[in-house]
């Protein structure tokens, strides 16, 4: 019963919603549409008066400043989609300007259902004659005017090692559409440390270009850290774009016919003027850090016993060139055993630069009891916002070792201070036990027993197995081709294992493939390949006397990894690139 009452209550609300929806659908619109708001003396203007309900007594404006070449022509369209009826009626005029200047096309009127509706006046600017009127432009001409590739640089006068972001945008006029594009030449960023910010999926947005409405899509984002002062060139990004340009022709069903055009667009060279870091006020211990940072030196514990270990962490956090400077080293007492530090980084790159933390973790093991002070150390960086150097100093840390042997230095110091030999108490001496508490082993002797003869004959029984195993090893050693294949598979599995897991997923696969190739060179040549571009890697392989085919194969794989961010790649192409990477690693391993 209660449920029935609820339904009764909802019926009036549902009826009201239907009425309001019907009223929205019945709303009358009457608009004036212009083919362009600026034209030359030798061009033509099309004016459409559109309404969504049939009307009578249409009264056009007088078109002051223009001559009517055609019109009015009338077109009517009706459609019924998903139960919704739509209607459109258009009166069209083709006009030619009489003189230069700014003119206003005044209101037109129409009577619909007994009411008079008026269009909104619009202003037109007429300029001198143009070289090529728009009605005579080819598809290539329209594409040239409707497609633009722009490189937006965040800062044109940065300091050395200050972050600069470059965003590549392609602006597309609403009058055209794009069916495909692919990169022709990627910038090399010489004299920069670069870090790409992947664009997962191009997202079309609305914007303006040269004061006109455009759509745009972000194709590439990169953060640059200049490594040299002076005027540096950022090479352009070039694309080959397939553009569909609408024509004045229509097909059998009334649809507009599009003309394809293939255009090459370029972002153009960009120049930035890199400023040298000021010499005034530069500290002696400055290691090249530029940005805004925090600095600390901490230990996992300060109270422990001898032979126990603790961790000392030297950490820098903040935003700046975190990967391009050296961390300061702590000054530790010589009586502490200190191991080589483990470097850790947790950084991410955004358009504002690299931010996160980098640290060195030192493992320290004290051998003797006592108190060991770790003096404070300093870290200096340059802040480009305030344009001065800032120095941060860590707190002093005291390591207190409570239990353990006394160092020889402490004993000697104590004896000299007292003027006589001192005897150290504690567990320095262990006395020999006088009662060993030995027990008899019994009458069961090993010599002559069953176990004795088994162990005696066991080497003779193992001789046939040793012979078979030796022949097997010789056969494997003699199989040169098989060994090469096994070694190639082992290296490929080591460096390309993650890429193999991502086969079928384009972006994760090519990111893992590129990282695997870089990790191989890093491990083989003891270099940091993230600081190298393709040209430097090719030069390095030439120095190592790697043959041309292997070098070209390695560079081609890196190019495919970059192109995969902008172009579709099939499962077959990914499998081919994976197989090529395995073969290239095998060839490099033999030659390096």
Comma- or semicolon-separated keywords:
Immunoglobulin-like; five-stranded antiparallel beta sheet; disordered N terminus; 592 residues; single chain
Q: Strand count, sense and closure of the main sheet?
A: 5 strands, antiparallel
* Secondary structure: number of strands: 30
Shape: elongated
Instruction: Report the total helices.
Output: 9
**What is the residue-averaged pLDDT?**
80
* CATH class label of the largest domain: Mainly Beta
- Termini separation: 87 Å
Which fold name corresponds to the CATH topology of the largest domain?
A: Immunoglobulin-like
Protein name: Oxygen tolerance
Signal peptide: 1-22
InterPro entries: BatD
Transmembrane segments: 452-470
Structure description:
- This is Oxygen tolerance.
- The chain crosses the membrane at residues 452-470.
- Keywords: Membrane, Signal, Transmembrane, Transmembrane helix.
- InterPro entries: BatD.
- Residues 1-22 form the signal peptide.
- The chain is an alpha+beta fold.
- The chain folds into four domains: 26-133, Immunoglobulins (Immunoglobulin-like, Sandwich); 139-274, Immunoglobulin-like, CATH 2.60.40; 292-401, Immunoglobulin-like; 480-591.
- The chain has nine helices and 30 strands.
- The chain has helices spanning 2-25, 139-146, 408-418, 450-478, 480-501, 506-525, 534-543, 548-563, 571-591; strands spanning 30-34, 38-40, 45-51, 56-59, 66-81, 84-97, 101-105, 109-112, 115-118, 122-127, 147-153, 164-172, 177-185, 192-197, 205-209, 212-226, 230-234, 238-250, 256-266, 270-274, 291-299, 303-304, 310-320, 336-338, 342-350, 353-366, 370-374, 378-383, 388-393, 397-401.
- The strands form nine sheets. Strands 11, 12, 14, 15 and 16 form a five-stranded antiparallel beta sheet that branches.
- A hairpin with a 2-residue loop joins strand 15 and strand 16.
- It is elongated, with a radius of gyration of 40 Å.
- The protein starts with a helix and ends with a helix.
